[in-house]
Amino acid sequence: EAQVTQNPRYLITVTGKKLTVTCSQNMNHEYMSWYRQDPGLGLRQIYYSMNVEVTDKGDVPEGYKVSRKEKRNFPLILESPSPNQTSLYFCASSLLGNANEKLFFGSGTQLSVL
Amino acid sequence: GENVEQHPSTLSVQEGDSAVIKCTYSDSASNYFPWYKQELGKRPQLIIDIRSNVGEKKDQRIAVTLNKTAKHFSLHITETQPEDSAVYFCAAGITGGGNKLTFGTGTQLKVEL
Fold first, then answer.
1. If interface means Cβ-Cβ distance under 8 Å, which residues of chain A face chain B?
2. Cross-chain Cβ contact B93/A40 below 8 Å
3. For residue B108, how far is the Cα from the chain centroid?
4. DSSP 8-state code for residue A102
5. Strands A109-113 and A54-57
6. What is the DSSP letter of A83?
């Protein structure tokens, strides 16, 4: 089944403790992206990747890192999480990274930073 | 950069009534406008989209209209059903390289029995 898989679904952590949210897609998509969803703010792009070893900042990249060493994986790294990073995170992918392509979203990761 | 405003933030309708969600965008270069539906606890999913060379597009009970001059587009849902209850996001982007979609802030639609 074609899908984007995120783990974990729920994560509670403390300020400053490094964490990684994994994202994997099995559709051979070139493009992958991370969004955060906050009430009243919608979906905001954190980072995106057009291909292996190519990553770029989105609208809210501060406090996040990403890597794209393999085509299928695009982990989101929070080196020193802070409470303002408490949010619902979505990974998404599309075939080539054109704006008019359907985005396939993962099931989301609800992160709470205490 | 692009700015997309979406209204209303919440919308409650009776089953069978119509629902309309409106979005405005700022970048006149934007030419692709998708709508995503997010059911409670689920991931967003594309339900319909429209390109700037088309004024209206329909898919069963869902339609989207686009006014390029005014830079606004709307989602219309007719004969609403309880399963239409969800958060709806509009977005705007420019076709070509670099998937840069800017999303609206979302509309929580509740269809009441």
1. 31, 33, 35, 40-45, 48, 50, 59, 90, 94, 97-103, 105-108
2. no
3. 12
4. P
5. unpaired
6. G
Q: How many CB atoms lie within 10 A of CB A106?
A: 26
- Taking phi first (over 0 means left), then psi (-120 to 50 degrees means alpha), and beta for anything else, what does residue B89 get? beta
* Whether pLDDT at B32 is above 90: yes
Residue A42: pLDDT band (50, 70, 90) is: very high
Task: Tell me the two tokens of residue B106.
Answer: 């979302």
Region A14-26: mean pLDDT is 97
Query: Which residues, in sequence order, are CB contacts of A35 under 8 Å at separation 6+?
Result: A43, A44, A45, A46, A58, A89, A90, A91, A92, B103
Report whether A88 contacts B81 (CB < 8 A): no
Backbone φ, ψ for residue B58 (5° rounding) = -125, 150
B64: pLDDT strictly greater than 80: yes
**Among candidate residues A23, A32, A11, A8, the one with its CA nearest the CA of residue A81:** A11
| Contact partners, residue B36, CB within 8 Å, separation at least 6 | A103, B44, B45, B46, B47, B88, B89, B91, B103
Q: Cα–Cα distances in Å, from A48 out to A12, A32, A75, A90? A: 24, 6, 11, 12
What pLDDT shows up at residue B17? 97
Residue type, A58: G
Other C-beta atoms lying within 10 Å of the C-beta of residue A61: 16
